[in-house]
Amino acid sequence: MLVALFVAAALSCANFDNDELQCEEAVSRLEECCPDIDARRFSCDVGCNSGVDFTNRAAGCVRDRSCDDLRNRDICAAMTRIANEPYPGQSTAQIEQEVCR
């Protein structure tokens, strides 16, 4: 009974839509293209007390750029700086602004 209650609570907090996948693809792309970034600092978990750090627009801006473009536009440097902030997830608007410029 306790296990069933735990599973039900976990599933009620989950939002199994496209946001998490979009975020994970963007973070993976940054990790691939930006050697100094600590991608573990970004959250792509969708749930009751968390959210994705990348909006769908921001995720698209990252995925649609080549690695050279991410580096040459200093997006890698900006995202590395944001990742090193104490709470990068509080910078969702800043993340979108940096990657979509």
Report on this structure.
This protein has 101 residues and is an all-alpha fold. 58% of the residues lie in helices and 0% in strands. It has six helices and no strands. The protein has helices at residues 2-13, 18-33, 56-63, 67-72, 75-83, 92-99.
Short recap of the structure:
The protein has six helices and no strands.
Strand segment count: 0
Query: Poorly predicted ranges (pLDDT <50, ≥5 residues)?
Result: 2-10
Q: Globular, elongated, flat, extended or rod-shaped: what is the shape?
A: globular
Radius of gyration: 15 Å
Give the end-to-end Cα distance, rounded to a whole number of Å.
Answer: 51 Å
Quickly list its features.
101 residues; mainly alpha; 6 helices
